[in-house]
Amino acid sequence: MIRYTLSRLAGAIPTLLIIITLSFLLLHAAPGGPFDAQKQIPPAIKANIERMYHLDEPLYKQYARYLWNISSGDFGPSYQYRETSVNEIIREGFPIDALIGGAALLGALLIGLPIGIIAALRRNTYWDYLPMGLAMIGISIPVFVVAPILILVFAVNLHWLPAGGWVGISPSHIILPALALAAPYVAYVARLMRGSMVEVLNSPYILMARAKGVPEPLVILRHAMKPALMPLVSFLGPATAGIITGSIVIETIFGLPGIGRAFVDGALNRDYTLVLGVTILYGALIVFFNLLADISYSLLDPRVRYE
Amino acid sequence: MEKDGPPDGAGLNTRSFPRAAYHISQRLPKPIQLVTLTPSVTQTLPPSKREEGLRLRKPTLHFISMAIGMAIKIAGRIAIRMKLLKVQQSRVPAISAGRARCRVGTNCRWRSSSGAVLLITLSSLLLFPFGCANPENVTHVAAAQTIQVSSGLAPDQVINRQLETDPRTLDPSLSQDVVGFIVLQDLFEGLTTVSPDGSTIPGVATSWETSADGKTWTFHLRKDARWSNGEPVSADDFVYAWRREVDPATASEYSQALAPIENAMEIADGKMPVDKLGVESMGSQTLVVHLHAPTAYLPALLTNAYLFPLYAPAVKQWGDAWTQPAHMVSNGPFVLSDRVLNGHITLLKNSHFWDAAHVRLTRVNYQVVEDNTAAMNQYLAGDLDLTDRFPGSDKDRLVQMLGSQLVLFPNFATAMFSFNVAKQPFINNPKLRVALSAALDRDILSKYVLRGIEPPAYNVMPPLTGYDPAIPDWAKMTPDARHAYARSLYQQAGYSDSNPLETVLTVMTQGPEQRRFMEAVVAMWQVNLGAKVQLYFEEWKVFLQAKQQKQPLLYWDAWSGDYPDPFTFMQLFETGNGMNSGSYHNAQYDALIEEASNTNDAARRLQLFRQAEGILNEDAPTIPVYFYAGTHLIKPYVKGWQPNVMDQILSRYIYILAHQES
Fold it and tell me: pTM score, two decimals?
C-alpha cells in the first residue's frame, strides 16, 4: 500500500515535467509578449524590463532557470502584477477556490447522497422520477445560467445575500457561489448513488441479509451503502480536482479573487510564470485526487488490493 | 494611455467554460489497477422484474426529464422577460411594498408565474427549501431602487466603488493602467491635482512660475503637506521619485512619460546617470524643473501617478514590498488599509493629509469586479455605490429602472480605424482613405449600434473646453450628399463596382457587442461604396504584435488622452513617434506640431493644433468613429462628483447623503 502510494507519487513527477515543458513551450510560442502594450515602449526601456525578468536570455536558459527555481518552490515573479510573486498570488487565491470548492462538494454530497438513496429505495415511484428528472435538469443547466438566477433572486430581489465580492471567510459570501458550483454535482452524485444502489440492492448478499431478517435500515447502512459508494468514490477523485480548478466562471460572475480568474487573465496577458505556476498546481491537484480516490477504493472494499 | 486593454469581462464567451461535465463523463469508466476482483462488482446481474420494468420505461423517463428541462429553461427566460416588463410598468407608481417574504412552511401560493418558475428552476437544483416567491417579489428590482435621500450627511461616510480590473501595481513609478491611476489618486497627491470638474488645480504645490523661455518651472510646495506617518513632504521626495521613474533599474514601462524633462530619455537609455535628470530641489519647499521645450500641459501632466512623490525610506527599507498595506507611506487623502489581489482594496482616511478637514469619506472600498454584468448586479443588490461600466445591451433597461442613476458623459478618448499608409492600397491615396471615412454613417452607428452611449466622432480630438476642433466639411453634409461625395472620391481613386476595393479590417476579439459594431461598419462600406472589406479578428496580444510589426493594412485603433491637452492626440501622427503605427508622414504636419510645442503663446498653440488637425482630416491617416463615454451607475446619495472629460471621480471630494432604501 505504502509502496504503491510512493510509486504513484514518483510517477507523478514525469507527468508534471511533461506538463511544464509543454506549457512552457506553448506559452513562449504564442505571439505577443507580456510587455506588449498599445502604448509602445521605447526599445531601450523594453530591454531594461526584459533584462530584469531574464526574458532576453535564450529559451533553453530560461527553461533551465525556471526548473531550477520551481525545484526550490519558487514560481517566480508575476509579469502582470509587478512586485507580486506567483507564490503570493497562489497563496492568496487558492484558499478561496478550495473553500468554495470544498463547500460546494460538501453540499453536493449532503444533498445528493440522501436523494440518490431514497430514489433507489423507492424506485419507479414519484420519489424516484421527480428527483431524477430534476437531476437531469441540474446536469443540463450550465453554471452561467444558474449563477445569475441565484444572484437575481437572492441578492437583487430578496437582499438576503450579497451579489458577489469577497470580504474574507464570511458564510454569506460563500453560500451563493458554492450553491451555483454545487448544482450540477448534486445531480451527478444523486444519479450515481441511485444507479449503484439499485445494482447493489439486487445482489444476492442483500437478498441473503433480508432473508436472515436483518432490519431494513441496517441492510441499507451496513450492507448496501459501502459497495454502493464505490462508483461515487471514483467519480469524486477527478470531480474534486474539477470543482476546485473549474470555478473560473463562478469567480467571474461573483467577482471572487480566486486563482481561476488570475489564470485566464494571465494567459491573455502572456504572464508566463503565473500561467505555468497555476498549471502545475492544477496538474498536481488532479494527480493527487486521483491517487486519493484509488487509495480510498482499497479502504472501502477489502477485495481491492494494490501491489 | 492605452485604451481597450485585454478583452474585457463582458466577453464571457471568451473565457473557458467549466470542463467539469465533459471531464466527468469522460472519467466515469475509470480504469483502475485491480489485482483481485470478485465477480459481484463487475459482472452485471440478472435483472429482476422491477429492473425490467425500469428498463422499459427508461427511454420515456429520459425523454420526460429532458422535456421538463427544456420547458423550464424556456420558462426561465420568459420569466425573466416578464419580470423586466413588470418592472418597467410598475416603476411609474413607485411601489413601496416592503420585502414581504413567506417563510418556509407558511401557506402562501404562487400567484406569480414568474416567481413560480424561478422557484421550480431553483428547487430543481435541489437546494435547501426556501420561502416561496410571492407577487411583491417581482417588483423588488424597482422597489430596491426607491431610495429616499435626505439632505443631511449619512453617519457612515463609506463608499463601495467598482474597479474594472485589479491594478497591476500600486507603485506610482510602475503604474500604467487606468485602474491603478484611480486608486493612486486617492493615495497620493502630486504637485498638482484634479478638481471635481476635472480641471487641474494646485496640489502639493501652491504656486509655480515659468522662466521667459518656458523651459524652467519653479514650484513652491505647501508647508503643511505631510506623509501618512506625519513627516513633511519635501521637494527631495519628488526628486527621488522622478529619478526612480527613469532609472533603468526600475524598468518602468511608463518612464517615457517624463520625456519633456531634460535628459529623461538619455537616462532611461542608460547613457547618463540618474542624477543628471532635469529636476532639483532648492531647499525643502522649492522644486525646479528643467524642460526640453516649453510644455504648456505640464501642470496637467503632473496630476499623473508617475510624477507623484515617494517616501524614500519606505521604498528603500521594504523594496518591492513597500506597496503592501503594512509598509506603504503615502501623502494623499487616504491610506492603504487592506488589499486582496483580484478581490478588494480598502482605503482609510489619512488624518495627516493637509486638507483632511475637507475629506468626508472615512473609508473607500474598491471591489475588483471584472464582469460588467456582475458589477451591474452588485449595484442593483446595493453592494456597490459607484460602478465604472455597465453592459451596453442593458442600457435601455437600466435607464428605465434607474433613471438619472445611469450617468453618461463624453470622455477624452477616441475610437478609430487606422490605415497603414506605407502599404498598398492606402499609400499615397488620401482620396480612398477619405472615401472610406466619409462613407461611414456614424450617427447610425452611435444611435443604434452603440445604443447612444458613445457619441459619433468626425475628427481625432475629443471635445475639450477651450479647443475648437477642425471638423471635415463632409461631416456637415446630408447622408445622401455625403455618400455621393464618398463614392466620387472612391471612383477618383480608381475603384468601381467592377473593380471594388478588397481589403481586410483587423480588429481584436472582444465579445459580441464589438463584433456587431465591426460588422455594421463593414456593411456600410459595402453598401455605400461597394468596397469589399473582410473582418479579421485577432486575440489582443496577437493583434498588438501584428500592429507593432506594422502588418495590418486597416486596423482598430483607440487612444485615451493622458492629460487634457490636444498634444496627447496630436503626437500620435508625428513622423517617427513610437505610437504612429500607421507610418503616417507629413512634413507640414510635423512642422506645425513642432511650432506648437515650442511656442509660449497659449492661443497660438491651440490655433496651430487646429491647423494640424485640418491636415489630418484631409490626409485621413485614420478614421475617427466615436468618442468614448464615461459610463457609470451612481447611487443618488453619492455626491461631490461632476461629469468630466478625463472621467476622474476622486474619492476625496465624495460624500454620502443620509438615505433609506424602501
Answer: 0.76
